[in-house]
Specification:
The complex is a heterodimer of chains A (about 70) and B (about 425). Helix content of chain A is about 90%, strand content about 0%. With about 70 residues, chain A is mostly helical. In chain A, helix 1 packs antiparallel against helix 2. In chain B, strand 10 and strand 11 form a beta hairpin. The longest helix of chain B is centred in the C-terminal third of the chain and has 94 residues. The chains are: A mainly alpha (about 70), B alpha+beta (about 425).
Chain lengths: ~70, ~425
């Protein structure tokens, strides 16, 4: 049963990650549409920020894995 | 145009290679002698974890040195002397590819003897089953497993206390340091898959970068050529977009080699973990011990190079009212440890998650096969191979990105440690990450 709840927890964490990264992507699109010449810079920073947000979601995944495996 | 053609040919060869050498070949080796049926989940954990030999197909594996130190002295053999768990050397056996020590004073510890493994019922299946209805029925299902009561809450690491039979007795096995065995009677210094993988990455780094640097010294004032031209944009990008802005003009040169080492080591280890066969099948950065040591090194570098300003800001933050300062001290000291911790957890989780997804998709083929026979297996292959291909490409990207993010954050932490605050007026704000 702990494993089932851990799986639900991991799923909820991924909702947060999806929303965060979607937000970052959306703002990046807006930035590029405002100033197309800055597209390269914006893209790089978007990817960095997305990796950090994804890192936060992956902490939750690691906790869920710990519940299942420990 | 010659270079473009070369690039196109290389790329198409890579694609063909990826399509044909996908990991479903690698996954057919679950038929070890002891297990009658393939257990995909156990095979998956085997691929994710470390082992003392490179298991290639069936019974064929590339042996690695096993070095163990216990109170009986030092053991140094090659892992093929263990014959996949059929022999015990000096009181040690190889259980599913992992070195374990035999507990028991009467077990011969100075010679090689034949042993056999006690059949475990679906090693991993039992670990799952005992969650919902196993708690009270320890004697019912565990027919092959003796001494069950104290292993009810064991994890799959212990596989319900693996045991071997020698003569007429049954002995317990002890892993070196697993999650529930923090003080073991022996220490493991073997060259395992991960250690070998790191040495492989080290050799690759030395070979590649000595070529690159020789290119610079022999082609001075000329355009870069060959492998030098592949790495130069990476290095220049890291220097100009990451290290110099983060650390500042004054001492970026002190830390640039370290950050480059970190970046390329993590990148090569990630990439090696994606290759399915021999030099590369080790899941190096997916091992939390490896990433923890990388973060520990970052921790040491950041804190040793912290200036007085840095430590004052950590321990007694200026610019806030006094009643808040102790609280901030606690938070900042915790942050000292949490920041490197996030580094290694992020790297570990990203890489492991990628491997888990790919391995799960491949084991889908085996689920189809057990459900529907060979036709199902063929359908499974048709379904899984494109997904595995796409995910391998994503994993390539993640490998690069995670190495980049690790080194970017390291540069930022080092920058915050060595920057000098010219203004001591208490109005400046901090970018606390």
């Amino acid at each position: 049963m702990g494993a089932g709840i851990a799986a639900i927890g991991a799923g909820i964490a991924v909702i947060g990650a999806g929303m965060g990264i979607g937000h970052i992507g959306g703002k990046a699109m807006e930035g590029i549409s405002r100033q197309p010449s800055a597209a390269g810079d914006i893209r790089t920073n978007m990817i960095v920020a997305a990796a950090l947000v994804e890192g936060a979601a992956l902490f939750a995944i690691v906790v869920a894995l710990l519940v299942v495996l420990l | 145009m010659n270079m473009l053609k070369t690039l196109k040919i290389t790329f198409s060869l890579l694609v063909i290679m990826l399509l044909s050498c996908n990991q479903s070949v690698f996954a057919t080796d679950t038929n070890e002698g002891e297990q009658k049926e393939e257990d995909p989940i156990e095979a998956m954990m085997h691929h994710l974890g470390d082992a003392n030999e490179f298991h290639i197909l069936g019974d064929w594996s590339i042996p690695l040195p096993c070095i163990a130190w216990s109170d009986n002295g030092l053991l140094m053999t090659m892992s093929n002397n263990f014959e996949h768990g059929h022999k015990a050397v000096n009181g040690f056996v190889l259980h599913h590819g992992i070195l374990m020590r035999v507990l028991g004073d009467d077990f011969p510890s100075d010679q090689t003897v034949d042993v056999s493994f006690v059949e475990e019922e679906h090693g991993h299946g039992a670990a799952e089953a005992h969650d919902h209805d196993h708690e009270g029925h320890q004697t019912v299902d565990v027919t092959g497993i003796t001494n069950a009561p104290n292993s009810a809450e064991s994890t799959e690491e212990a596989d319900h206390a693996p045991q071997i039979k020698y003569g007429t007795n049954t002995y317990d096995l002890e892993a070196c340091m697993s999650l529930q065995n923090t003080g073991s009677s022996w220490q493991d210094f073997s060259i395992t898959k991960n250690v070998f993988g790191m040495l492989m990455a080290l050799i690759l780094l030395i070979v590649v970068f000595s070529k690159v640097s020789k290119g610079y010294s022999s082609r001075e004032k000329q355009a870069p050529k060959g492998i030098q031209s592949f790495f130069e944009p990476l290095i220049i990008f890291m220097r100009d977009e990451v290290v110099r802005p983060a650390i500042g003009e004054k001492d970026w040169q002190r830390f640039f080699p370290f950050i480059m080492c970190l970046f390329f080591f993590i990148l090569f280890c990630n990439l090696l973990g994606l290759i399915p066969i021999f030099p590369g099948s080790a899941n190096i950065t997916g091992n939390i011990g490896v990433t923890m040591m990388l973060a520990f090194v970052v921790f040491v570098v950041v804190n040793v190079n912290g200036t007085k300003d840095y430590w004052i800001h950590v321990l007694w933050m200026p610019g806030v009212p006094t009643f808040v300062k102790p609280l901030l001290t606690i938070i900042e000291v915790l942050g000292l440890f949490i920041k490197p911790a996030t580094l290694f957890i992020r790297l570990f989780a990203n890489i492991t998650a990628g491997h888990v997804i790919i391995l799960s998709l491949v084991s889908l083929i085996f689920f189809f096969k057990s459900a529907m026979g060979m036709g199902g297996a063929a359908a499974g292959v048709g379904l899984a191979v494109p997904f595995v291909f796409a995910l391998n490409l994503l994993e390539l990207f993640v490998a690069l990105l995670q190495a980049f993010v690790f080194s970017l954050l390291t540069a930022l932490y080092i920058g915050s440690a060595v920057e000098d605050h010219d203004d001591h007026s208490h109005g400046h704000d901090h970018a606390t990450m």
